[in-house]
Design goal:
266 residues; mainly alpha; Serine Threonine Protein Phosphatase 5, Tetratricopeptide repeat
Length: 266
Amino acid sequence: MRYLLLAILLMLPVCMSGQTYEELVGQAQTAVEHDSLEKAEALYKSALKLNPNDYRNALVYHNLGHVQEMMYWRNTNMKKMLEEAVYNYSKAIEMQPESVPMRFSRANLNLNMKSFGKAILDYSAIIDKDKTNTTALNRRAYSYFQMRDYDKARTDYERVLEINPTDYTSALGIALVLQKSNKSREAISRLEFLIAAYPDNPELYVVRSSMYEDLNMREMAILDLSKAIEMQPDNPEYYIQRAMVYEKMGKKALAKRDYRKASRLQ
Protein backbone atom coordinates (compact mmCIF):
# COMPACT_ATOMS: atom_id res chain seq x y z
CA MET A 1 0.00 0.00 0.00
CA ARG A 2 2.89 2.36 0.83
CA TYR A 3 4.47 1.84 -2.58
CA LEU A 4 1.13 2.31 -4.35
CA LEU A 5 0.66 5.64 -2.55
CA LEU A 6 4.17 6.71 -3.56
CA ALA A 7 3.46 5.86 -7.19
CA ILE A 8 0.27 7.92 -7.10
CA LEU A 9 2.12 10.87 -5.60
CA LEU A 10 4.74 10.72 -8.32
CA MET A 11 1.99 10.85 -10.93
CA LEU A 12 0.30 13.87 -9.42
CA PRO A 13 2.37 16.52 -11.27
CA VAL A 14 1.29 14.94 -14.54
CA CYS A 15 -2.33 14.33 -13.68
CA MET A 16 -3.19 17.51 -11.79
CA SER A 17 -5.62 19.63 -13.71
CA GLY A 18 -4.92 23.25 -14.42
CA GLN A 19 -1.19 22.95 -15.01
CA THR A 20 0.14 25.15 -17.75
CA TYR A 21 2.37 24.13 -20.64
CA GLU A 22 5.25 26.06 -19.09
CA GLU A 23 4.80 24.35 -15.73
CA LEU A 24 4.82 20.89 -17.28
CA VAL A 25 7.97 21.61 -19.29
CA GLY A 26 9.68 23.14 -16.26
CA GLN A 27 8.81 20.14 -14.10
CA ALA A 28 10.10 17.81 -16.82
CA GLN A 29 13.43 19.62 -16.89
CA THR A 30 13.66 19.37 -13.10
CA ALA A 31 12.87 15.65 -13.28
CA VAL A 32 15.72 15.16 -15.75
CA GLU A 33 18.09 17.00 -13.42
CA HIS A 34 17.05 14.58 -10.66
CA ASP A 35 17.48 11.59 -12.99
CA SER A 36 13.74 10.81 -12.87
CA LEU A 37 13.57 9.90 -16.54
CA GLU A 38 10.21 8.12 -16.56
CA LYS A 39 8.62 11.10 -14.82
CA ALA A 40 10.26 13.52 -17.25
CA GLU A 41 9.02 11.51 -20.22
CA ALA A 42 5.44 11.59 -18.91
CA LEU A 43 5.61 15.35 -18.26
CA TYR A 44 6.97 16.16 -21.73
CA LYS A 45 4.24 14.03 -23.30
CA SER A 46 1.62 15.84 -21.22
CA ALA A 47 2.94 19.21 -22.40
CA LEU A 48 2.72 18.11 -26.04
CA LYS A 49 -0.81 16.81 -25.51
CA LEU A 50 -1.88 20.00 -23.74
CA ASN A 51 -0.59 22.30 -26.47
CA PRO A 52 0.15 20.28 -29.64
CA ASN A 53 0.58 23.31 -31.90
CA ASP A 54 2.94 25.39 -29.78
CA TYR A 55 5.95 26.63 -31.73
CA ARG A 56 8.15 25.68 -28.78
CA ASN A 57 7.33 22.02 -29.23
CA ALA A 58 10.43 21.52 -31.37
CA LEU A 59 12.55 21.78 -28.23
CA VAL A 60 10.10 19.64 -26.26
CA TYR A 61 10.21 16.89 -28.90
CA HIS A 62 14.01 17.08 -28.87
CA ASN A 63 14.22 16.90 -25.09
CA LEU A 64 11.71 14.06 -25.01
CA GLY A 65 13.83 12.19 -27.54
CA HIS A 66 16.92 12.77 -25.41
CA VAL A 67 15.16 11.42 -22.32
CA GLN A 68 14.02 8.33 -24.22
CA GLU A 69 17.52 7.80 -25.58
CA MET A 70 18.91 7.90 -22.02
CA MET A 71 16.22 5.44 -20.94
CA TYR A 72 17.25 3.11 -23.75
CA TRP A 73 20.95 3.20 -22.90
CA ARG A 74 20.04 2.50 -19.28
CA ASN A 75 18.12 -0.57 -20.37
CA THR A 76 18.83 -1.70 -23.94
CA ASN A 77 15.94 -4.14 -23.80
CA MET A 78 13.63 -1.13 -24.12
CA LYS A 79 13.69 -1.12 -27.92
CA LYS A 80 10.52 0.96 -28.02
CA MET A 81 12.38 3.83 -26.34
CA LEU A 82 14.92 3.85 -29.15
CA GLU A 83 12.22 3.97 -31.82
CA GLU A 84 10.41 6.77 -30.01
CA ALA A 85 13.64 8.74 -29.54
CA VAL A 86 14.33 8.66 -33.28
CA TYR A 87 10.71 9.64 -33.97
CA ASN A 88 10.82 12.61 -31.58
CA TYR A 89 14.20 13.83 -32.84
CA SER A 90 12.69 13.70 -36.33
CA LYS A 91 9.63 15.68 -35.21
CA ALA A 92 11.95 18.32 -33.74
CA ILE A 93 13.92 18.53 -37.00
CA GLU A 94 10.70 18.84 -39.00
CA MET A 95 9.80 21.90 -36.94
CA GLN A 96 13.31 23.40 -36.95
CA PRO A 97 15.20 21.96 -39.95
CA GLU A 98 17.98 24.55 -39.56
CA SER A 99 18.84 23.46 -36.01
CA VAL A 100 22.35 21.99 -35.90
CA PRO A 101 22.05 20.62 -32.31
CA MET A 102 18.88 18.73 -33.22
CA ARG A 103 20.55 17.27 -36.30
CA PHE A 104 23.50 16.22 -34.19
CA SER A 105 21.25 14.43 -31.72
CA ARG A 106 19.63 12.25 -34.38
CA ALA A 107 22.90 11.72 -36.24
CA ASN A 108 24.74 10.67 -33.10
CA LEU A 109 21.98 8.27 -32.11
CA ASN A 110 22.06 6.65 -35.54
CA LEU A 111 25.84 6.50 -35.38
CA ASN A 112 25.72 4.74 -32.00
CA MET A 113 23.16 2.30 -33.38
CA LYS A 114 25.38 1.65 -36.44
CA SER A 115 22.81 3.10 -38.83
CA PHE A 116 25.67 4.74 -40.68
CA GLY A 117 23.78 5.69 -43.84
CA LYS A 118 21.17 7.63 -41.85
CA ALA A 119 23.89 9.26 -39.75
CA ILE A 120 25.67 10.41 -42.91
CA LEU A 121 22.54 12.19 -44.12
CA ASP A 122 22.32 14.32 -40.98
CA TYR A 123 26.05 15.00 -40.76
CA SER A 124 25.95 16.06 -44.41
CA ALA A 125 23.10 18.48 -43.66
CA ILE A 126 25.19 19.99 -40.86
CA ILE A 127 28.26 20.27 -43.10
CA ASP A 128 26.18 21.93 -45.82
CA LYS A 129 25.44 24.70 -43.32
CA ASP A 130 28.93 24.82 -41.83
CA LYS A 131 31.71 23.41 -44.00
CA THR A 132 34.23 23.87 -41.17
CA ASN A 133 32.36 21.79 -38.61
CA THR A 134 35.13 19.34 -37.78
CA THR A 135 32.98 17.26 -35.43
CA ALA A 136 30.47 16.51 -38.19
CA LEU A 137 33.27 15.89 -40.70
CA ASN A 138 35.05 13.44 -38.40
CA ARG A 139 31.86 11.57 -37.59
CA ARG A 140 30.80 11.43 -41.23
CA ALA A 141 34.28 10.15 -42.09
CA TYR A 142 33.94 7.46 -39.44
CA SER A 143 30.53 6.49 -40.85
CA TYR A 144 31.99 6.23 -44.36
CA PHE A 145 34.86 4.18 -42.94
CA GLN A 146 32.43 1.73 -41.32
CA MET A 147 30.63 1.41 -44.66
CA ARG A 148 34.02 0.72 -46.30
CA ASP A 149 33.82 3.82 -48.44
CA TYR A 150 37.45 4.63 -47.73
CA ASP A 151 37.86 7.31 -50.41
CA LYS A 152 35.07 9.45 -48.95
CA ALA A 153 36.32 8.82 -45.43
CA ARG A 154 39.80 10.00 -46.38
CA THR A 155 38.39 13.10 -48.10
CA ASP A 156 36.57 14.12 -44.92
CA TYR A 157 39.57 13.40 -42.69
CA GLU A 158 41.84 15.43 -44.95
CA ARG A 159 39.36 18.29 -44.91
CA VAL A 160 39.53 18.32 -41.10
CA LEU A 161 43.33 18.44 -41.20
CA GLU A 162 43.15 21.41 -43.57
CA ILE A 163 41.07 23.19 -40.94
CA ASN A 164 43.04 21.90 -37.94
CA PRO A 165 46.41 20.27 -38.78
CA THR A 166 46.76 18.92 -35.23
CA ASP A 167 43.43 17.06 -35.14
CA TYR A 168 44.20 13.67 -33.57
CA THR A 169 41.05 11.89 -34.76
CA SER A 170 41.56 12.72 -38.42
CA ALA A 171 45.28 11.97 -38.39
CA LEU A 172 44.58 8.53 -36.93
CA GLY A 173 41.63 8.09 -39.28
CA ILE A 174 43.78 8.61 -42.37
CA ALA A 175 46.32 6.06 -41.11
CA LEU A 176 43.51 3.52 -40.65
CA VAL A 177 42.10 4.30 -44.10
CA LEU A 178 45.54 3.65 -45.59
CA GLN A 179 45.77 0.36 -43.72
CA LYS A 180 42.37 -0.74 -45.02
CA SER A 181 43.47 0.29 -48.52
CA ASN A 182 46.42 -2.15 -48.29
CA LYS A 183 48.92 0.65 -47.87
CA SER A 184 50.29 -0.43 -44.51
CA ARG A 185 53.77 1.00 -45.01
CA GLU A 186 52.34 4.45 -45.75
CA ALA A 187 49.98 4.01 -42.81
CA ILE A 188 52.92 3.27 -40.51
CA SER A 189 54.69 6.40 -41.71
CA ARG A 190 51.62 8.46 -40.90
CA LEU A 191 51.30 6.84 -37.52
CA GLU A 192 54.91 7.57 -36.61
CA PHE A 193 54.15 11.29 -36.75
CA LEU A 194 51.27 10.74 -34.33
CA ILE A 195 53.40 8.67 -31.98
CA ALA A 196 56.01 11.43 -31.97
CA ALA A 197 53.29 13.90 -30.96
CA TYR A 198 51.59 11.53 -28.46
CA PRO A 199 54.33 9.16 -27.22
CA ASP A 200 52.37 8.21 -24.08
CA ASN A 201 49.26 6.99 -25.90
CA PRO A 202 49.18 3.15 -25.83
CA GLU A 203 46.39 3.04 -28.44
CA LEU A 204 48.79 4.22 -31.12
CA TYR A 205 51.27 1.42 -30.46
CA VAL A 206 48.48 -1.15 -30.63
CA VAL A 207 47.26 0.27 -33.94
CA ARG A 208 50.78 0.24 -35.37
CA SER A 209 51.25 -3.34 -34.19
CA SER A 210 48.29 -4.37 -36.36
CA MET A 211 49.93 -2.67 -39.34
CA TYR A 212 53.16 -4.56 -38.71
CA GLU A 213 51.04 -7.70 -38.54
CA ASP A 214 49.66 -6.95 -42.00
CA LEU A 215 53.25 -6.89 -43.27
CA ASN A 216 54.17 -10.09 -41.37
CA MET A 217 56.61 -8.07 -39.27
CA ARG A 218 55.63 -9.89 -36.10
CA GLU A 219 58.69 -9.07 -34.03
CA MET A 220 57.92 -5.36 -34.54
CA ALA A 221 54.27 -6.02 -33.66
CA ILE A 222 55.39 -7.68 -30.40
CA LEU A 223 57.57 -4.69 -29.54
CA ASP A 224 54.65 -2.29 -29.99
CA LEU A 225 52.24 -4.45 -28.01
CA SER A 226 54.80 -4.82 -25.23
CA LYS A 227 55.16 -1.04 -25.16
CA ALA A 228 51.39 -0.64 -24.86
CA ILE A 229 51.31 -3.21 -22.03
CA GLU A 230 54.12 -1.37 -20.25
CA MET A 231 52.00 1.79 -20.38
CA GLN A 232 48.71 0.14 -19.46
CA PRO A 233 49.45 -3.18 -17.71
CA ASP A 234 45.86 -3.67 -16.54
CA ASN A 235 44.34 -3.83 -20.05
CA PRO A 236 43.49 -7.50 -20.81
CA GLU A 237 42.90 -6.81 -24.51
CA TYR A 238 46.54 -5.93 -25.05
CA TYR A 239 47.67 -9.26 -23.59
CA ILE A 240 45.18 -11.13 -25.79
CA GLN A 241 46.44 -9.36 -28.91
CA ARG A 242 50.06 -10.11 -28.03
CA ALA A 243 49.16 -13.74 -27.30
CA MET A 244 47.61 -14.05 -30.75
CA VAL A 245 50.80 -12.78 -32.37
CA TYR A 246 52.90 -15.16 -30.27
CA GLU A 247 50.68 -18.03 -31.47
CA LYS A 248 51.34 -17.12 -35.09
CA MET A 249 55.05 -17.08 -34.31
CA GLY A 250 54.79 -20.56 -32.80
CA LYS A 251 55.67 -19.31 -29.31
CA LYS A 252 52.95 -21.22 -27.52
CA ALA A 253 54.34 -20.86 -24.00
CA LEU A 254 54.45 -17.07 -24.28
CA ALA A 255 50.97 -17.01 -25.80
CA LYS A 256 49.64 -19.16 -22.94
CA ARG A 257 51.25 -16.85 -20.39
CA ASP A 258 49.53 -13.79 -21.92
CA TYR A 259 46.15 -15.50 -22.15
CA ARG A 260 46.38 -16.39 -18.47
CA LYS A 261 47.29 -12.82 -17.59
CA ALA A 262 44.35 -11.50 -19.60
CA SER A 263 42.01 -13.96 -17.88
CA ARG A 264 43.11 -12.74 -14.45
CA LEU A 265 42.50 -9.13 -15.43
CA GLN A 266 39.00 -9.69 -16.84
